[in-house]
Amino acid sequence: MTSDERDDRLMRANQANWDARTPVHLASRFYGLDGDPDPSRWFAPWEWRDLGEVSGRDVLHLQCHLGTETIAFARRGARAVGLDFSAASVAAATGVAARAGVDVDYVRANVYDAVRALGGRRFDVVYTGKGALCYLPDLDRWADVVARLLRPGGLLYVVEFHPLLNALGPKPGPGEGPELLLRHDYLGGAGPVHRDGTHTYTDGPAVEGATDSYEWMHGIGEVLGALTAAGLTVRSLRESDELPWPRWPQMVRTPSGWWRLPEPRIPLLYGLLAER
């Protein structure tokens, strides 16, 4: 089996896992989709400052899952499109947007097939992140797709969990205490990390059926290198010590409503703005 064939097989396993996660996430208190989806809570204030005005612009949200952030763009006046590889997620996102009374187009496709799936359409803004890049084995290929999706002068905005956060791991291992320990590589290149996806990051019951999940580590240098090789110009890069939910029990609420570790202060999220 070639490396490409292996990656395709693992991405299909991830797709099945996200199909199985979707009903759990739809019913969870974490997303709170039984009422207003409140998409603003998933954005740090600095994201909107970095992006600027989006009203009247064509915005594509890659790997959108339930489309909560996609709705935020539509509510700000953008012509919003969401793309995800999970059929269950796309169906759920369509329903969430309809109940929220916003106009969003959703497309089911692997991100690597986005150019074809979108019929060659180009966008003013491509937005992605908060747990997206780790499911992509090849960032060079991803960056090439992004460049082809953007109009000249268009913006890519990646707001992603910091690779240091991913290296710390989502939870302590068996027999370990609450200390933050490096459990995975910060840098990529060592192949995918296999995770048990029986329980996801939300509340709710166990995932039924497809529980295998695979993630690839990508350092910030790898992300920057892929984008510049694809012809994009990096305009800004920021690091943040806050997350939109408490990943660890010792985290404390901040004035923004998000969460940070009391100590040590480490980057948990980053925002990267690039231009075609």
TrEMBL record:
Signal peptide per UniProt: none
Organism of provenance: Streptomyces flavalbus
CDD domains: AdoMet_MTases (cd02440)
Keywords tagged on the record: Methyltransferase, Transferase
A Pfam family per the record: Methyltransf_12
Gene Ontology biological-process annotations: methylation
A GO molecular function held by the record: methyltransferase activity
EC number: 2.1.1.-
Domain Methyltransferase type: 60-156
Protein name from the UniProt record: Class I SAM-dependent methyltransferase
InterPro entries hit by this protein: Methyltransf_12, SAM-dependent_MTases_sf
This protein's record includes keyword Transmembrane helix: no
Superkingdom of the source species: Bacteria
Enzyme class, UniProt record, top EC level: transferase
